[in-house]
Amino acid sequence: MNTPIDSINTAPPRPAAVPAGAPFPGPWSVSPRGPSAAPPAPGDPPGPAGPPLPRVRSSLGGGVLSVTLAGEFDHYSCLPLRALLDEGAALGARRLVLDAAHVSFCDSALAHLLDRWAGGGRTWELARGSRSVRLLLELWDRLDRAAEPPDPEAGVRASLPRSGCR
């Protein structure tokens, strides 16, 4: 009898197009040909390597950490940058100068790192930035300003009578 519980342990039926001797590539196995390659994006170098890996260069001197970024930066590729910023802060850097002119893609992970750096009483400045970095930081700044609580003094002034006290 093939109950729902027993059906878990049975092999799925093989499609008719697969020869009997070939392994069945089910959802739990890897195709013998390997993973399929993603189509190259515009601007990527040709070749099987895929998109370029993020590159980080840095120097530390006089309390200033200078960092040059190139490539794509997201949640996962920002991890080495986070470690670098933590190490620079531990070595006494109080100011970060960021050159991100060759960053082709970045998401909020980069903005979070910069916010985290500034949260420790340190400062940062963007020496050069690509279009994607400038757009991200502009949006981050707008969202940050929108999240600020309103000025309590402005609320009091707006509620005062215009004609004065009688």
Short structural summary:
The protein has helices spanning about 5-10, 80-90, 110-120, 130-145, 150-160, and strands at about 55-60, 65-75, 95-105, 125-130. The protein is an alpha/beta fold and about 170 residues long.
Q: What does this molecule look like?
A:
The protein has a four-stranded mixed beta sheet with strand order 1-2-3-4, covered by helices on one side. The protein has helices spanning 4-9, 79-90, 108-119, 131-147, 152-159; strands spanning 55-61, 64-73, 95-106, 123-129. It is built from five helices and four strands. Residues 22-39 and 156-166 have low confidence and may be disordered. The protein starts with a helix and ends in a 7-residue tail after the last helix.
What are the salient characteristics of this protein?
33% helix, single chain, alpha/beta, 5 helices, disordered C terminus
Low-pLDDT segments, ≥5 res: 22-39, 156-166
Give the overall average pLDDT: 75
| Strand-pairing-aware structural class | alpha/beta
Beta content comes to 15-25%
Largest sheet, in brief, is:
4 strands, mixed
| Overall morphology | globular
- Report the helical percentage: 25-40%
